[in-house]
Amino acid sequence: MAQISPRLARTYFAEIAADSALPLDPDDLVHMVRRRQHGHVVIGDIAIRCYKNRSRWTYDERDIRRAAQAFADFHLDLNDVVEVRLPPYRDHAERDPEERGRADWRQQIASWMYWHACQKHQEQRHYEDWNDSWQRIGAQGLPGDLTWEEFMAAHSGRRQNIANTRPLELMTRSGGSLLLPRAYAELLDRWEQVTEDLVVQARTCSRCRAQGPRWGAWRTPSPLGYVTLCPPCSGATFQRYTGHLRGVLYESARTRSTRADGYLCRLCSEARAAAWDHCHDHGHVRGPLCGSCNTYEGKSLPQSFLTNQEGAALHLLECRGCLERRTLPARYHAALARMHVEATERHIIRSRRCKHMPWIEHVELAHGAYRFELSCWWHKATWTKDVTVAETAGLVREFVDQALAAEQAGAAVPAPRRPASDTTVQA
Predict the structure, then answer these.
(1) Domain map of the chain by residue range?
(2) The pLDDT of residue 380
């Protein structure tokens, strides 16, 4: 089996399928966005498996060439068309969790249209006159007052992708009907089934056969790719981390000789760990994390990690340097100052304190203070708020003390405490 790199696979595919009747967009061969979810790239109705070889992701060259040739030979009769009926609008919160993220090409096209219909509705009306009329299919077959010309103009130059193809390049309109070539619509129907079959297979625990979440939360990395293990099976396979390397420097020989993938992730406690997470300020090991949690801690917004990740504060305090100094890494200081400002800052409108949380558009550290630019969209008010470095250090220490106290009491870590007085400005 000849293994080739993602970029070379993309090149081979593009060359072989260059004359395809379908508008192909196979950049996912490079990005592999569903690699964790089911381990394949699905182009049209063809699933191409991703392989892991010596810590690098590759493809079988034969799979790439066969798939590309199938699309090069694809027959498309542009005169044989079928009507595309848009599904009714459904708010994300109203959908069954099992339906969220399911491959559904009609719903995807509809979501593009509903979004533009909503934008047009809101741009043409004062916010007090907004309603749900944009959610209903109009006389032109599109949501609300959206016209076909407006929709296509908005998408001009965009590469809207479904099944690694571009459906809007083949879509036409006649009267109030949206049309697609029959062969292409049938291909997208098969794409839905192929994708769903892959998801069902990948979400099944390889040991007890239990069904897990759709988005690969049970998928854990291994030397040969991803395997699916439910939390109980993972717990029975990998040991739990109980501070084995607490106080050890990340660059030490002891860390290099101890494999992180022998442990469960100490944050989610569901997946096999992939790496030793450490504090970049003090250099101490914090614990083993799976790839997903490690990425979340390192690349997400600090405020998001602190507020949405259970056990985030205590994980950061696994660093001996942070614990002894009752502090957090520097990148979290601005986040705690921002959380404080969001909780306390309101402007005055007609002698009353606005009840809406302000929008913070910008923050910078200058002259010994974090300066936040705030605005209230409801009342068109803008103002600034400074939180000094010394004040921020106090907020950080207070947050750490509350986290440690909550740990001792066995309670959840509370949000930053609201001060006794608030600073407000006149709108």
Answers:
(1) 3-72, 81-202, 219-324, 330-409
(2) 81
